[in-house]
Specification:
Strand content: 15-25%
Order of helices and strands: EHEHEHEEEHEHEEEH
Number of strands: 10
Number of helices: 6
Largest sheet: 8 strands, parallel, barrel
Distance between the termini: 13 Å
Radius of gyration: 16 Å
Number of domains: 1
CATH architecture: Alpha-Beta Barrel
Shape: globular
CATH class: Alpha Beta
Strand order of the largest sheet: 1-2-3-4-5-6-7-8
Structural class: alpha/beta
Helix content: 25-40%
Length: about 210
């Protein structure tokens, strides 16, 4: 089954929707430059406290750990991070207690070397934003990467309920990752789109 991660969650009702709709993982953004930065969310503690069973809870960074702590409530940061059992970043995340995922942004002249990660996330390159841009990866390039990579590969970048099926059939990734493609505004999920995205991913996995 193709795994589905709903990312950029900031509200408890959106976490509940993702869980009920059948997501395999949920993501919370710990990158301060993102409009989905969880420490700025009004109900961040409530969002992280929603019971999710054994669902993977991913802390999403630009670079891990945070390099700039000025102005942040670090006790809150540590408390929220401790509720996650996986981390995703642009560098190999050191010293983390759970699963570790390296983000590779395409296209790129060279790709970072990796040795101590559990999976790779392919996302679209943007000269300013580190993620959540809605830009689509070249699926033919991504498909070649999946064939050559020995680790699980998660496809991100510009996915929506309308194109995720084609993306899965073209790339055949281990999983797909969506944020802006199921939102009404940054950090606010459209529950109908969340359900439609997960359903489309499941149907695509069953098709030849």
């Amino acid at each position: 089954m193709t795994r589905v991660k709903i990312c950029g969650l900031t509200r408890p009702q959106d976490v509940e929707c993702a869980v009920e709709a059948g997501a395999s993982a949920i993501g919370f953004v710990f990158e301060p430059t993102s409009p989905r930065f969880i420490l700025n969310a009004e109900r961040s503690e409530d969002a992280l406290n929603v019971p999710t069973g054994y669902l993977m809870r991913v802390a999403v960074f630009g670079h891990y750990p945070l390099r700039e702590s000025a102005g942040l409530d670090m006790s809150k940061y540590v408390s929220l991070l401790a509720k996650c059992n996986a981390v995703q970043a642009l560098n190999e995340p050191p010293l983390f207690h759970g699963k570790k995922f390296l983000v590779i942004r395409m296209p790129a002249n060279t790709y970072p070397k990796f040795s101590d990660v559990d999976g790779i996330v392919i996302d679209a390159f943007d000269p300013v934003a580190l993620g959540g841009t809605g830009k689509t990866v070249d699926w033919s390039v991504a498909a070649d990467f999946v064939k050559d990579c020995k680790l699980p590969v998660i496809l991100a970048g510009g996915l929506t309920p309308d194109n995720v099926g084609e993306a899965i059939r073209s790339v055949r990734p281990y999983g797909v990752d969506v944020s802006s493609g199921v939102e009404s505004s940054p950090g606010v999920k459209d529950h109908g789109k969340v359900r439609a995205f997960i359903q489309a991913a499941l149907e695509a996995h069953r098709s030849p």
